[in-house]
Amino acid sequence: MKDSLTRQEIIELLPHRDPMLLIDEIHNIKKLFSAKAIVNVKKTSFFVQGHFPDNPVMPGVLIVEAFGQAAATLTAHGLDKSTYENKLVFLMSVEKARFRNPVIPDCKLELNIEAIRSHGKVWKYKGEAIVEGKKMADAQWSATIVDRK
What is the CA radius of gyration of the chain? Predict the structure, then answer.
């Protein structure tokens, strides 16, 4: 099993497409346990152009979305393809989300994520968002795998 994925390989695992596919690459994959995802936050990213024009900042809700995409990729990559085919991962809850520092473009946002536990089709994760060694945000969240309709 590969321990890193390119953007194209992520596209093969997730239903997200531009402009909502936020994850650019994933490294240090430990099967169904942890990984580091990279989001290249640019001044031209759709979400910073109006948030805010004179002081661009990545919205916190999109940091949480990026956490979710990273976790979905980690899980899809670790599961047998037949288990994940024709499925979607839906966010169920977000807990303990804290936004400590603004994520300002141009930067490389590193998302260190970990699967805390799974029970059937429900998974719980935690993650930290880091820029240049500084913690920007952290959260815990739950997601479920459902049939694609």
Answer: 15
